[in-house]
Amino acid sequence: xxxxxxxxxxxxxxxxxxxxxxxxxxxxxxxxxxxxxxxxxxxxxxxxxxxxxxxxxxxxxxxxxxxxxxxxxxxxxxxxxxxxxxxxxxxxxxxxxxxxxxxxxxxxxxxxxxxxxxxxxxxxxxxxxxxxxxxxxxxxxxxxxxxxxxxxxxxxxxxxxxxxxxxxxxxxxxxxxxxxxxxxxxxxxxxxxxxxxxxxxxxxxxxxxxxxxxxxxxxxxxxxxxxxxxxxxxxxxxxxxxxxxxxxxxxxxxxxxxxxxxxxxxxxxxxxxxxxxxxxxxxxxxxxxxxxxxxxxxxxxxxxxxxxxxxxxxxxxxxxxxxxxxxxxxxxxxxxxxxxxxxxxxxxxxxxxxxxxxxxxxxxxxxxxxxxxxxxxxxxxxxxxxxxxxxxxxxxxxxxxxxxxxxxxxxxxxxxxxxxxxxxxxxxxxxxxxxxxxxxxxxxxxxxxxxxxxxxxxxxxxxxxx
Amino acid sequence: xxxxxxxxxxxxxxxxxxxxxxxxxxxxxxxxxxxxxxxxxxxxxxxxxxxxxxxxxxxxxxxxxxxxxxxxxxxxxxxxxxxxxxxxxxxxxxxxxxxxxxxxxxxxxxxxxxxxxxxxxxxxxxxxxxxxxxxxxxxxxxxxxxxxxxxxxxxxxxxxxxxxxxxxxxxxxxxxxxxxxxxxxxxxxxxxxxxxxxxxxxxxxxxxxxxxxxxxxxxxxxxxxxxxxxxxxxxxxxxxxxxxxxxxxxxxxxxxxxxxxxxxxxxxxxxxxxxxxxxxxxxxxxxxxxxxxxxxxxxxxxxxxxxxxxxxxxxxxxxxxxxxxxxxxxxxxxxxxxxxxxxxxxxxxxxxxxxxxxxxxxxxxxxxxxxxxxxxxxxxxxxxxxxxxxxxxxxxxxxxxxxxxxxxxxxxxxxxxxxxxxxxxxxxxxxxxxxxxxxxxxxxxxxxxxxxxxxxxxxxxxxxxx
Amino acid sequence: xxxxxxxxxxxxxxxxxxxxxxxxxxxxxxxxxxxxxxxxxxxxxxxxxxxxxxxxxxxxxxxxxxxxxxxxxxxxxxxxxxxxxxxxxxxxxxxxxxxxxxxxxxxxxxxxxxxxxxxxxxxxxxxxxxxxxxxxxxxxxxxxxxxxxxxxxxxxxxxxxxxxxxxxxxxxxxxxxxxxxxxxxxxxxxxxxxxxxxxxxxxxxxxxxxxxxxxxxxxxxxxxxxxxxxxxxxxxxxxxxxxxxxxxxxxxxxxxxxxxxxxxxxxxxxxxxxxxxxxxxxxxxxxxxxxxxxxxxxxxxxxxxxxxxxxxxxxxxxxxxxxxxxxxxxxxxxxxxxxxxxxxxxxxxxxxxxxxxxxxxxxxxxxxxxxxxxxxxxxxxxxxxxxxxxxxxxxxxxxxxxxxxxxxxxxxxxxxxxxxxxxxxxxxxxxxxxxxxxxxxxxxxxxxxxxxxxxxxxxxxxxxxx
Amino acid sequence: xxxxxxxxxxxxxxxxxxxxxxxxxxxxxxxxxxxxxxxxxxxxxxxxxxxxxxxxxxxxxxxxxxxxxxxxxxxxxxxxxxxxxxxxxxxxxxxxxxxxxxxxxxxxxxxxxxxxxxxxxxxxxxxxxxxxxxxxxxxxxxxxxxxxxxxxxxxxxxxxxxxxxxxxxxxxxxxxxxxxxxxxxxxxxxxxxxxxxxxxxxxxxxxxxxxxxxxxxxxxxxxxxxxxxxxxxxxxxxxxxxxxxxxxxxxxxxxxxxxxxxxxxxxxxxxxxxxxxxxxxxxxxxxxxxxxxxxxxxxxxxxxxxxxxxxxxxxxxxxxxxxxxxxxxxxxxxxxxxxxxxxxxxxxxxxxxxxxxxxxxxxxxxxxxxxxxxxxxxxxxxxxxxxxxxxxxxxxxxxxxxxxxxxxxxxxxxxxxxxxxxxxxxxxxxxxxxxxxxxxxxxxxxxxxxxxxxxxxxxxxxxxxx
Lengths: 466, 466, 466, 466
Description:
The structure is a homotetramer. In chain A, the strands form 6 sheets. Chain A has a 7-stranded antiparallel beta sheet with strand order 3-2-4-1-10-9-11. The first copy, chain A, folds into 2 domains: 2-233, Glutamine Phosphoribosylpyrophosphate, subunit 1, domain 1; 259-308 and 324-431, Rossmann fold (3-Layer(aba) Sandwich), CATH 3.40.50.2020. The first copy, chain A, is of the alpha+beta class. Chain A has 17 helices and 23 strands. The mean pLDDT of chain A is 92.
């Protein structure tokens, strides 16, 4: 889970990249970085742990001159939180410097890495992205675009990429298009970002998405498109971008996120109606679906939980027990909305179930007579290998428990998930074959070369074969 | 505008104070501080510019031992942003150490300061709070509570205070009760905070509010109440706490904030109806009123503007112009909600008008057919001298322009303010005499000794005399 | 132990003050600060814990505009290491802002403080300097110089002071002149510093010393001298400035430091000769005396101990024992110089004795056949109350042990201190009545009002009465 | 110019490495780093710009667990001051993790780098050290020692190296032994450091030097020596380590540094005598040679220049001119020593000449009647390619000017360099064939593959052929 940006031919490239990273900060809060190339073909870069806002100031931006820049925000995943794994990733290879920013996850990186190591390659990070750079470096002939194409043919998985050499910027997206990647224009500059909300911030106009399987070179003559394979393959857009990950004001995979998320809420109301007095979201991610649920059901919508935005990850938990501490530092119930009421609480998904359980208890402690949990997605039963931070099967409550068992764990009066069926009923989302929903179904659209045991368990060797 | 907290007799007093400051962070983001007293009567303190979350970590909390602590978050007001003015304020005087945290603003601090200076007092800050400490120090006889009472009799204005000596904690509130101050209990400890949302976070139970004109001593025998004056005076609760400042999940001045704010929205819909397709709030502060407006009017509620929570004050504006830059880093429109629609946008107040104007233009640029601005409070025409950061009359757009002129400035299709009349129609708010609404009316309930020119201009020498 | 600086009428006053602080850094490494006044009479200041070099950079210096500035470096003394006690100290009093930087220590500060507190004064630090500011503030009539004079008449002890108002700079030195204070000139500016080495760095020419008991006002018309008392009193120059504290390249108390320190070494050689192969200093402070000893004795001088200048106070001592760890991180023996040799090691003084003992053992471990310790000052038997950080009597080895006992503790083959008699034989130092040597004799030249028990123990109520 | 350390089998390996880095800090102040391997074969590392003392504290040391650690301090050389180039350098290759710390400089790194890039290797730094890691990674067979040996056979130049895998520590030194590398023992641990002064600090006993061309494996069975080539080759010990670079208390290349440096001063006195009143060093590096000069000549030794140790590289030079600013922040003259005197000032070397010129002027400004400059090494005429930071020929004053011309530039009354002949007269240094003195002669003992133009200009293709 990451956000990326590339700026080509803008007098304030690094500042523009920085603003885009701020707009994409929801895609990753662990580390942020920007690399630029100046007129004299010198590379500059700065990356650090933390938020873009804290990492970059006027002095740092000034240390990143040039009309071309690439930026990256990275999500925290267990065990690999270190500066080595922060991006953009800058290397020097036979044809000069090369920078990359990567959103996604390769499924055969480990296999290739072992092959590369066996032939004498050295690695300085644990990122799959480093594998791509090695493959490019080993392609000795042709221009950069050819070399990148040749390298990408060897990797499997999800990748939206922006490269920067001292000459050109290159954007590329895997043939299934798991992760979004869109192109914008501002003045003379081209902009490539993960989500359109970043274009909005810098007044860039939306041009189009980078297509699945497309590689685009940006040079002084404009945009040049190359397709990785002649015939189209099945797309595998990540359905979770719509459910939770993308910002609601973004436009990705050809559609606006907000109405889809609201549509999930409407379908949920149709599928799991309940007599109640109030519909409340788990803010902020549950807001659009809750509004949809309220509209469809006719039950009044209220903000029954207030989110504290001044919180981080490092709260010092007192030794004296505070009930539901982890949830409480982020959310607080509004008594007037909940007291004596039958409450429908709408959230986008349930992972381990502990947070949802604490929320239910908090709502009930605020005086709610009934608490009905509604989830605007199907039960998550399988981990993601394409870039979303969903934990192992062991930790996924829905991988091991029935809906009724989960309801019991949550201490909710009722629990309703949006069905996998209904997920696509919202008309605009057809055809459903275009989406990867392996986290619900275990039908992984790309073989999991590096995770054979999950392949076996899911009984599915790249189920949606092309 | 500040938030305060006092903890008496808790084994983790500093950590509890820290958590309360995080819950009250919306009351002030400029600086934060905590002071504690340990068993050996030694004082410890730490304060810095920035957010409580960034200032305090486990190591700093460990450097603040003791079962008693006081904390403070401070709002940034022009010209006085410096560490000297950060609180809590710790002095050593004849009877030992004394710490104070202050929310509010005195109206005769300057006058007293001049008197004190004339008698040889020295000041190390520009805070009115320092005046209070001098007055207390000059009261030589009696116990601390008596000395504080004697000192407070000499000051005018708004003050909610928490003091800490090496023996006791003292909470005090001015006779008109401008600012909130509530008491809670957790285990063996007493807790005093500005808003109940801080009690919620640490699992403290609400005991009651500190009364206007009340001083409470917390010692090993419990709570001891003293009234500053024998007969009750007119209260002057700050109406702006309800309109904007307090968190919607708090309970202050005897009532829950959320339903009042929603009630303002309902009244607004009755007073300024309009034919429209969608009601959207300016998030986050406009949300409850917008929900109220939508419910009363029957027009669907949507989140048409998304707030970016990963922003701060130090954005580097690019030289290449970005339209509505300042607003854009915080808000982004959702096209699907706005395009081709007649939009009602609800906000809590208008100060200078420039932000509202940028928002209107942003909504229209997203495709809205009509933009109707609705404000859930009357026009702000007068500055506040009791602790809310409302600028000078010159900068207040409503002090100089008619509603129609403001509408023109905003480029809105219509503009409706909640009338001063209707502000109190929401039944629960009577009697209106209990509220200070000088920012709308110029009827200042306490003389402005230090600002005689405004007194004269408003034609009102403490209008609501007791 | 502190260093101070004042700059009057220089376009880069803060930068000049900063450079002077760097030159005076040996006088105090705990905290550093600078305050300036700009053309609009606004005060600016910045202070922090640590070295001037680390605290001030171009951005901070730029935040301290104006043609007048005052700076301070402070030594770490136990128990009071906190930012509150860092200087310069800035207050606002009846006649505006006032800044002070203080080198020295008052002997009746506590008494006055209790009186001030009894009359309602509040204190924000534990510094004696704050007392002076209160006294000035309470003098209501007359110009600043008169008020300072009136205030200083009430205090006893050692003080070299630089004040800054929005109009003038004032330098003052106590009647006995314990601490140095010199005046320089650079371009249009006046400069006041503790030691001449600071004048050298900024190319200022030496004008003269501020006289004991003199107060000098610097204004647009130049320098104006005022004497605190009509008749001259006995001076009490701190002999320890010559022995250890001042930099050897400075000129203070009317004489150059280097030849005096070398003279101590020569006298030491005459008083305590020994047959030896090599004379080595404990660097850096023992160097001039060791050179003097070598010259007088004819024994070759060598650098037998090398000082590591890349060390600080925060070394993490390993659990696995390292012999003489504390000394070793600072000093390392040169085997070739010491092996098989009879070594004379010259140091300036012995306080607790533990460091000297470790040095002796280190030299012997490097192969020295004999180790003869020579100290270029008499045994320190009494604490200092005038600003030098000499610990309590309990900790002073010479307060309780004979020279022979100390020699045994050091494990030295012989030990010789410069006698109190010989200290003044070096012709230039007469008359000896001009010096305070209470640390050797217990004859305190100013009563120790705040430390009556030491007064009694030393049997000396201000021995050198005027 | 760097300092390195390796610790094998010590319970506090990282802390020991840290202390050694502090002792070796004079070898490089740009960046410092430590990497460790813990019992579970996990690698940990931390590096940053700045001094070891500032970079490492107890918390950071605790984050570097394990009984094996490697550390590095790096000198600032123009153009490559960035964290990427900080060491130790950690990679993951086919056989696991591998860490290296490198002191020295390869002369064919660029050539190899181009070959590696041509075969698809990627680089993340501009360090020659990265080339070594690639070569090792490409050796697929054999144990680590064999692979390192095979890799080192391909590189030319100067290298003292310490490697760490999760199993063993390996130390290696180039066949000519340009840079020092010594082995010590403390308790159960082996220690490898650049200079013996680091062994002294941690109480390690000196075992022996790593021999030129030797590779030593440290494992649980002890030390295992391997020679890179069967027959001995000519050594090329860097003479500049003796002249300036090593600490005087160190023992390297089989000899103590201090007496050699003093011997240079004695030879200098014999070769360039002068009638004078005082001999002074340029501290600290000129001290031993000045003592030698004084002893040989019989002219008294004095500290005529005092060094300010509280300075760094970032002084803000005032706009108002200060004469000799750069030198002045570091050195200040002692008037009493210099006034009216004929002064011999001894320094170790002259590079560009500007600093020496400023020193001469400063001494004269302090009142010296005559200033005689004596340099304890021959004129530096050629850049170093083996790891000493000597600039390009253009910048070396002695490459283009005669001694008399340089004297004129310095404004000295006389100037005398130690002759190349006399450099080796100090008996202990024979045979002179064992030393690299290319900086004086241009006789480079190893071909400069990456700098063919200098090879040609010096007329010398590895002059001292084996």
